[in-house]
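Reopening this one. Same input as before:
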Amino acid sequence: MTQPSQKQVHLGFENHTIKIPVDRLIYSQPLAPTIKNGTKYQQIKISIKAIGLVEPLVVIQHPEHKDKFLLLDGHLRAEAMKDLNIQEATCLISKDDEGYTYNKSVNRLSSIQEHRMIVQAHENGVDAKTLAAALGISVDAIRERFRLLNGICDEVATLLADKPVPKRVFPVLKCMKAFRQIDVANIMINLNNYSLKFAMAMLHATPPDQLVESNKLKAAKNSSALESLQQLEKELALVQADTKLLEESYGPDNLQLTIIKTHIKTILNNARVINWLSKSNKEYLEQLQLIAEM
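Same output, byte for byte:
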């Protein structure tokens, strides 16, 4: 039996980084005129000045100018390096630019990219206080970024590495087991929806057996409360139906009672009827008198 031929995996990048002069980088798209006024750009500039470039730029050989490189990812970092008069940048060479959409490449660092940059800088000896000063945030915020991927499975971290996922979404994903995290991450990517509301909706739709242990009890309580609410809604619907029936029959019943009451009063005005009832059916007389007095 012949073995099926194994296809060689095509690498999208070179397996090493190189140093490239910043003036040989050509942007794939021009930056917006106001981009330098943004907080994110200032944070990137301050961080590069304090700890250097952590995340390499992604480039490809320029198709027309062999001594130039087309910048695919890292436009803000490259611009910050120019402003800081840094001559060379660490770059990763891409073999194929079809996997990049240029207007997508001109963006800010994703939450996961920022996390990895901070972690790597810390591993290189930069303390949390220095990082906080470089990024213009508090030390507590730096510590939160350190823990960003704690409880997130590696595949989800890879899937969402370059996606604009808000930091508040990751605690929601941590409530789910690994397989459910992967499902939710894929759904987010397919729908291009990374909002916190969408993540919360996916969490509420997650079966208890796909939640981490600390959240199963919450889910059970929520389920019990939901069942009680549904039972109350059913009982309320029955009461409303009964009330509707009473409202529909009230008018005819009241008219009939008025006619009967008038007729009984007429009978009780007859002395011979009163005399007969008092002798033979005294209980009937008492009941008829009660009705007449209503």
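So the earlier flakiness isn't reproducible anymore. For the record, The domain at 13-148 is CATH 3.90.1530.10 (Conserved hypothetical protein from pyrococcus furiosus pfu- 392566-001, ParB domain).
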